[in-house]
Automatic annotation (TrEMBL), chain A:
Domain CBS span(s) in chain numbering: 174-232, 238-297
Statement: the UniProt record of this protein carries the keyword Protein biosynthesis: no
Keyword terms, alphabetized: CBS domain
UniProt-recorded Gene Ontology molecular function terms: [protein-PII] uridylyltransferase activity
PANTHER family: CBS DOMAIN-CONTAINING PROTEIN (PTHR43080:SF2), CBS DOMAIN-CONTAINING PROTEIN CBSX3, MITOCHONDRIAL (PTHR43080)
SUPFAM superfamilies registered for this protein in UniProt: cAMP-binding domain-like (SSF51206), CBS-domain pair (SSF54631)
Organism in which the protein naturally occurs: Zunongwangia mangrovi
One Pfam entry name: DUF294
Name of the protein: CBS domain-containing protein
Domain Cyclic nucleotide-binding: 18-138
Keyword Kinase: no
UniProt lineage: Bacteria, Pseudomonadati, Bacteroidota, Flavobacteriia, Flavobacteriales
Automatic annotation (TrEMBL), chain B:
Lineage, opening ranks: Bacteria, Pseudomonadati, Bacteroidota, Flavobacteriia, Flavobacteriales
InterPro entries: DnaQ, Ribonucl_H, RNaseH-like_sf, RNaseH_sf
Annotated GO biological process: DNA replication
Domain named Exonuclease: residues: 36-209
Keyword field: Exonuclease, Hydrolase, Nuclease
A cellular-component GO term for this protein: cytosol
Originating organism: Zunongwangia mangrovi
Subunit structure: DNA polymerase III contains a core (composed of alpha, epsilon and theta chains) that associates with a tau subunit. This core dimerizes to form the POLIII' complex. PolIII' associates with the gamma complex (composed of gamma, delta, delta', psi and chi chains) and with the beta chain to form the complete DNA polymerase III complex.
Protein name per the record: DNA polymerase-3 subunit epsilon
Example GO molecular function: DNA-directed DNA polymerase activity
Taxonomy, superkingdom: Bacteria
Record has Zinc as a keyword: no
A Pfam family recorded for this sequence: RNase_T
Job of this protein: DNA polymerase III is a complex, multichain enzyme responsible for most of the replicative synthesis in bacteria. The epsilon subunit contain the editing function and is a proofreading 3'-5' exonuclease.
Length: 640, 218
């Protein structure tokens, strides 16, 4: 019988080592006996000590984390994403697995049959070598990623392991796909080559021997100043001689050399002198990137990223960073700010890349609003995306045409954000939904409907939409809308009192005997809902109070309470308590979420220790206090 | 069950009787993780279940979050009835390229393959009706398997909210987009069956139900 699925699998495999070394027939035979696995987030594919499977694995979609139990906790050895292979142990040793493979996110994994594959590792040297190296180095791909251009195929570099404490002593990451030119080339054509290849520097070589290096800076100093014409040959302006090193140079050596000579690049030659063949180049930027998880490096990496996949990898690093911060008990205000900025940069980068992809300038100015937790700068874990677009009123008769452009843009952006890791909003509150991609006038009409006739749905929508933060575009648009909203609320006092009763619908999370109120039924029966009973009442109270003071552009819950404490000295203590509670609960949720690889929303009380329970109870006291204040101040009416 | 309550099937062909005999056990407490699902799709000459015919059937078997590539099912039928309008959609040209078999032989192989598994298809009603119409033409009773529809199941994964249409019919393309599934080989029976299978696994992951019967609840 024909087997089209095997073809489909083979077509995927052929792009990744070691499968790229196989011929079509071998690939198809392997694929025919393969399996396709679905691994839900947090599920374990194999665990330490488990018997070998008949398959080894390659990630098709998603990410699988390899971890080992060390010093009483799980340590991540590696994260495999699309095209990475893992679970190789059964190919080499008749032993049980020595690590866990756990799904970092929902994943589709292909299982490759070991019985069919093993003969190929023996008959095909390249396949065998690749697998041995993968297995031995414990990294899935012994070739540096940049190596895929295969310019100097065969000299493998091991990727430095950035979280190692001895990072500086690791071999430096060498780029082997380098752009070179000859000394006789004109400056003009060298510049053209550089912009075509999108590089900031170019190596000048003579029969593969490095004679000089040319950087953007040289152009600035020699051409832009008028000292040389663009028809001069490059040897007149290049920096020479080139600083060279052999290829096992450590990161520490490279950094010191760069500092000493005030240069950004080091040339790697066969014996480390300028007299032998070039084998690669080392740049300051790449060292920074391999250093990995520092916020400034991640920020740069986001701004330079060229693909959604790259952004996704950076996002995974951001999560590691977040985990480290929470573990080391860094103040939440600091964590939120950093993570917000990184999130914000990611979304900005996605939007600006999509605008370019559309190959058409936006017809009118627009603002991309992030709402919900990202809008409040409280999105630490990746949760859902909530967003909307406001576009300036287009000329008459052009409304739908204009909307069509922004819907197209939003569809692209929403999809890419989903791939990066922000799931689609389950209630479709996203800019790609025509209901939330509106002109400024339409938005005004929309919000005035909510404020003038506040029913349950209208309040729910206001709660989501009124916490926006402008992520991209023209802030005048969002400011006009904010002013409009505040003015309307002023004229319709009923709105705030309905919003107030809504904020009270989830009363104090502690029961009469100071026990926790848990969910009564459903899938989460007996779990405590931290969002509904803890964070949400605080968020809603803060929003209501801050709206009543007509303050715009302040959407973070803790910051709102801090401002309220300044505004009302007599309630200072109460509001400061709320500010503290909202930070404490958010941190608690983040820690829970990181631990359980979920949104951290539902808490299994039986797993909490006494101290945590006390902390939660203390936070809940503040909720009760602020709710009492609202009850009195807004004369809440029962409409819900 | 009492014997006289059973229909007499002795006049039916042996392959039917073998198939039919597999449906005795009680599945009240069966777990999803222990159930074999056959995810299927058919390509047809059109949408009329009396006049149109099945051109191909593609199936994959899913159990315990796994799909074995070697255990997939892909057949192409010899059909005299032929509608040139729909050929372009699925690129199946009459008799071309593929080894084709008769409708009767196809049903025989299909019944042997599916056994008593739970059938899954996107907008399953259509595919099941087309297969049952073919069964009828070949003097066979209707399929006895339980059937799940990924269109209906997907709707269950969506939250209950006034802001989304609770009755919307989702196309396979929409679900694939939402779940980021590649649309390779779309509009071939086996290609669509594979896409549906991945969607089905992702839906099960989201629904987090344990028992099979919970999937059939309204």
């Amino acid at each position: 019988m024909k087997n089209s699925i095997a073809h489909r699998i083979a077509d995927f495999l052929k792009d990744f080592p070691p499968f790229n070394f196989l011929n079509a027939e071998e690939l198809l035979n392997i694929s025919q006996e393969s399996e396709v696995l679905y691994v839900d987030k947090g599920n374990i594919l194999f665990r330490e000590g488990e018997q070998m499977h008949d398959f080894f694995y390659i990630v098709h979609k998603g990410a699988i984390q390899l971890q080992k139990f060390k010093n009483e906790q799980y340590e991540t050895l590696d994260t495999c994403d699309e095209g990475d292979i893992f679970g190789l142990r059964p190919l080499f040793a008749e032993e049980n697995y020595i690590m866990n493979a756990i799904a970092e996110e929902e994943s589709i994994v292909y299982g490759i049959p070991i019985n069919q594959f093993k003969p190929l590792t023996e008959s095909n040297k390249k396949v065998g070598n690749f697998l041995i190296q993968s297995f031995a180095t414990n990294t899935r791909n012994p070739y540096a990623r940049e190596d895929k251009g295969k310019l100097f195929f065969g000299n493998q570099v091991v990727e430095p392991i950035s979280n190692s404490p001895l990072f500086e002593l690791q071999p430096a990451p060498i780029i082997k796909k380098i752009v070179t030119t000859s000394p006789e080339t004109t400056i003009k054509s060298a510049a053209q080559l550089m912009s075509r290849r999108k590089v900031g520097s170019i190596l000048v070589t003579k029969t593969d021997i490095p004679v000089g290096i040319l950087t953007d800076e040289d152009f600035r100093n020699s051409i832009a100043t008028g000292d040389y014409s663009i028809d001069t040959t490059v040897d007149k302006i290049m920096s020479s001689p080139v600083v060279c090193y052999p290829k096992n140079v450590t990161i520490a050596q490279a950094q010191i050399t760069m500092m000493k000579h005030n240069i950004n690049h080091i040339c790697i030659t066969e014996d480390g002198t300028p007299n032998t063949r070039v084998v690669g180049i080392l740049s300051e930027h790449d060292i920074m990137v391999s250093q990995g998880n520092s916020p400034s490096v991640l920020m740069k990496a986001i701004q330079r990223s060229r693909s959604t996949k790259e952004l996704k990898k950076i996002r995974n690093k951001i999560n590691l960073l977040l985990g480290g911060y929470i573990q080391n008990n860094i103040p939440l205000t600091h964590i939120s700010k950093l993570i917000f900025e990184l999130n914000d940069a990611t979304i900005k980068r996605v939007i600006s890349r999509c605008v370019i992809k559309l190959q058409q300038e936006p017809p009118v100015s627009f603002a991309w609003l992030s709402m919900g937790s990202q809008g409040r700068k409280e999105q630490l874990l990746q949760t859902d995306q909530d967003n909307a677009i406001i576009f300036a009123d287009p000329p008459e008769g052009k409304l739908e045409e204009t909307r069509a452009y922004f819907l197209q843009l939003a569809t692209k952006v929403n999809k890419r954000l989903m791939i990066v890791g922000y799931e689609y909003c389950p209630a479709d509150m996203m800019a790609k939904n025509p209901r939330w991609c509106l002109s400024l006038s339409e938005w005004k009409a929309q919000v005035s409907k909510w404020i003038k006739e506040p029913g349950p749905d209208e309040i729910l929508l206001s709660n989501i939409f009124f916490d926006y933060d402008i992520t991209f575009g023209d802030s005048r648009l969002s400011n006009i809308l904010s002013d409009y909203i505040l003015k309307l609320i002023d004229n319709h006092p009923k709105f705030l009192s309905v919003m107030g009763s809504n904020a009270l619908r989830n009363p104090s999370p502690l029961g009469f005997f100071r026990q926790f109120l848990v969910e009564q039924d459903g899938e989460k029966k007996d779990f405590f809902d931290l969002k509904k009973r803890g964070l949400q009442p605080l968020t809603e109270s803060a929003r209501l109070l801050i709206l009543s003071y007509k303050i715009k552009n302040l959407s973070n819950t803790a910051e709102r309470f801090d401002r309220l404490a300044q505004l009302e000295p007599k309630n200072k203590e109460l509001f400061e308590g709320c500010s503290y509670a909202s930070k404490a609960l958010l941190k608690f949720r983040t820690r829970q979420g990181l631990q359980n690889r979920d949104s951290g929303r539902f808490i299994d009380l039986s797993k909490l220790n006494k101290e945590d329970k006390m902390k939660l109870k203390r936070a809940f006291k503040s909720i009760k206090a602020v709710q009492d204040l609202i009850k009195v101040r807004f004369e809440t009416v029962n409409v819900i | 069950m009492l014997d006289w309550f059973k229909k007499d099937e002795s006049h039916l062909p042996e392959f039917w009787q073998k198939y039919s005999a597999k449906f005795d056990n009680n599945r009240k407490d069966q777990l999803i993780a222990e159930t074999t699902f056959v995810v299927l799709d058919t390509e047809t000459t059109g949408f009329d279940q009396d006049k149109d015919r099945i051109l191909s059937i593609g199936c994959v078997k899913v159990s315990n979050n796994k799909l074995l590539v070697s255990d997939s099912f892909e057949i192409y039928l010899k059909q005299e009835k032929f509608n040139p309008d729909t050929v372009e959609i699925h690129g199946l040209i009459k008799h071309e390229r593929f080894e084709t078999i008769t409708e009767e032989k196809a049903l025989q192989l299909f019944l042997k393959y599916i056994g008593n598994s739970v059938l899954v298809a996107h907008h399953a009603g259509f595919d099941i009706n087309m297969i049952n119409a073919a069964m009828k033409r070949n003097q066979l009773p209707k399929l006895k398997n339980q059937v799940l529809d990924t269109g209906v199941l997907y709707r269950k994964t969506r939250i209950i909210s006034n802001f989304i249409d609770q009755h919307k019919n989702y196309t396979l393309d929409e679900i694939a987009l939402a779940y980021n599934i590649d649309l390779k080989d779309r509009h071939t029976a086996i290609g669509d069956a594979f896409i549906t299978a991945i969607a089905f696994l992702k839906i099960l992951g989201r629904l987090k139900r344990k028992k099979l019967k919970e999937l059939f609840k309204k």
